[in-house]
UniProtKB/TrEMBL annotation:
Residues 260-342 form the Toprim domain. It comes from Collimonas fungivorans (strain Ter331). The keyword RNA-binding does not apply. A zinc finger (CHC2-type) spans 37-61. It comes from the Bacteria. It catalyses: ssDNA + n NTP = ssDNA/pppN(pN)n-1 hybrid + (n-1) diphosphate. Belongs to the DnaG primase family. InterPro entries: DNA_helicase_N/primase_C (IPR016136), DNA_primase_core_N_sf (IPR037068), DNA_primase_DnaB-bd (IPR019475), DNA_primase_DnaG (IPR006295), DNA_primase_DnaG_DnaB-bd_dom (IPR013173), DNA_primase_Znf_CHC2 (IPR036977), DnaG_bac (IPR030846), DNAG_N (IPR013264). GO terms for cellular component: cytoplasm; DNA-directed RNA polymerase complex; primosome complex. SMART domains: DnaG_DnaB_bind, TOPRIM, ZnF_CHCC. Contains an N-terminal zinc-binding domain, a central core domain that contains the primase activity, and a C-terminal DnaB-binding domain. This is DNA primase.
Amino acid sequence: MIPQSFIQDLLNRVDIVDVVGKYVQLKKGGANLMGLCPFHNEKSPSFTVSPTKQFYHCFGCGAHGTAIGFLIEYSGLGFVEAVKDLAQGVGMTVPDNDDKIPPAQRAEYQAKSMALSDAMSAACDFYRQHLRSAPNAVDYLKRRGLTGEVAAKFGLGYSPDNWDSLRQVFPDYEATALVESGLVIDRTDEEGNNRKRYDRFRDRIMFPIRNTKGQVIGFGGRVLDSGEPKYLNSPETPLFQKGSELYGLFEARQAIRDAGYVLVTEGYMDVVALAQLGFPQAVATLGTACTPTHVHKLLRQTDHVVFSFDGDRAGRKAARRALDACLPHATDNKVIKFLFLPQEHDPDSFVREMGAEAFERQIHDAMPLSQFLLNEVTAEADLSTSEGRARAQYDAKPLMQLMPPSSLRLQIVRGLAQLTQSTPNEIESLFELAKPIASARRAPPRSNRPPPVGLERQIIRLLVAHPAFASELDDAALDAVAHFAPDRAEMLARLITASHAMGEQANFATLAEHLREGGEDFESLIAEIAAESESETEAARLELAGAIRQTKMKTLKEELDQLAATGLGNDDARNRYRELMQKQEQLRREAEAEMNSR
């Protein structure tokens, strides 16, 4: 886990304007900067970036967060990846388990990684340049209906039909990085000695594969004729793991947000052709089965995923593997569907023959995950017999065990129970499902508890906006707010503890990032503060002092009323009553003095 102190230091060094400005065109708008929101369609700018708060907020869709949150939402990076990306930009090293690696070894690894990345980038430029002077390759792309514009968008290139064309761009053709990046192959004899080195890709249309940062990490090469293999992919390298990457995801990120879903296809050409035909939200797996990592990466971009497969046996087999990969991520707020095209069509040919509207209908009517799962487990079972129903349950058990407890799982359990003449409770018991929910009552999520109101809300809100104020609270103030309702007192305690831990450098952005990891209790307050114009620190300090004073007055009055109700029958009670009255009078004087000073 990355220490909170490192996150705080990172956010203090990073300027969110620089981070967001790489992806969004920002213009000055008062104290903030404004631009078109990258997370939803809009014609008038409603997306603001506050240099003071180091926070972004969209008044249109409500998106908001720190520089870390922006990278997570925009680039689809995980939290750790986003932190490492920002840290690299400001020369910081993220402390993690790699700290046990000696500095010299770590430096060697980083240099090696940089050499591989540089080699892939140089090769990509080389292939792109050679496409312009390869009429046979250009003719092939034109026959496939692709324009120069879409070829440029995806960085398509051509690898010349020579054994060592890359010598033109790599004078040191014997460099280790060329083999380790998969660009060249070392042929060895029977004794393991090198005999000759040659280019891996020759006479092929080249599809560069990019990671979420846009860096080239691998290639797919397609033959121009009927040669074999039809597609040749880069091997697994330190930069490139097929089970983790998706072709076209970098190029499709904004289109996925615009469309509201991602379309997963089976090949490079499907992605490029669909972008040409008006479906730029398409991506593809890289010559391998869909993995849980692929699904996780897709669900970072959108809550709606549609897998498109050919309707033949191979397509059904691929769809089944995709189903297995999706089940651990199948929750109530995600929509996962499976589209099966007629056997004679792939997405490209279907759109060209049937039209974009027909393809849109196919996507809309795609089979939901729940239906596909039930179809799969009952397809070869005779449900009119006990043996057939038992077999369907046997096939369904390992699939259901992959799913997290959710309403969706319960719906599938009910569907299977109906098909197999069982009850949902029997299915859950038989399948040994984690956290059965068919009969159990689930506690409401923590974030559903009532939000703070009145003085409690005002104080918590001011301390979120100005965490440095927490260090200014005296013992009397802390004692007063300790009488909040239990839930609010807990929120306040978390808030004060986090602010104190951050010290003098505490600010809204770092505190908001810290609170985000702890749940949604503070989410509405953070969104509200992010949407506000800048506030004067001194005015906020006075507002907090006034709210604390009112809280103290309220606490004093409650104790005074309790003492009065006892009749003040002894000296201790009477002395305490006089003491409280004096404190109450002191607070009134402080309030009057503050009013007169304004």
